[in-house]
Amino acid sequence: xxxxxRLTRSExxxxxxxxxxxxxxxxxxxxxxxxxxxxxxxxxxxGKTVGTAVQRNRAKRLLREALxxxxxxxxxNWDLILIARPKLAATSxxxxxxxxxxxxxxxxxxxxxxx
Length: 115
Known about the structure:
Shape: globular
Order of helices and strands: HEEEHEH
Strand content: 15-25%
Distance between the termini: 16 Å
Structural class: alpha+beta
Helix content: 25-40%
Number of helices: 3
Strand order of the largest sheet: 1-2-4-3
């Protein structure tokens, strides 16, 4: 994912987690908060419940790659956090992409049919 789409500062993560609206899926959780900036920013995280460092990194890579083709179709002016759940590390990219699309649709963040 390009750096202009990344949510990187811990203060931003805390702000989105505390005041954003969350949407749950068995594979991931999406937390969304409207942003004052003109850009879409996305943070991806995986806690220790996902597994070892290798499994956490795989889960984060899956989420980032599932998001990459969807970026043009996601509404701007939002800060998003995608949180991996334990089952995500064992799934395929196609299943991960379906989960991300389902979460974005529930949050009404997809502008057009982007898949």
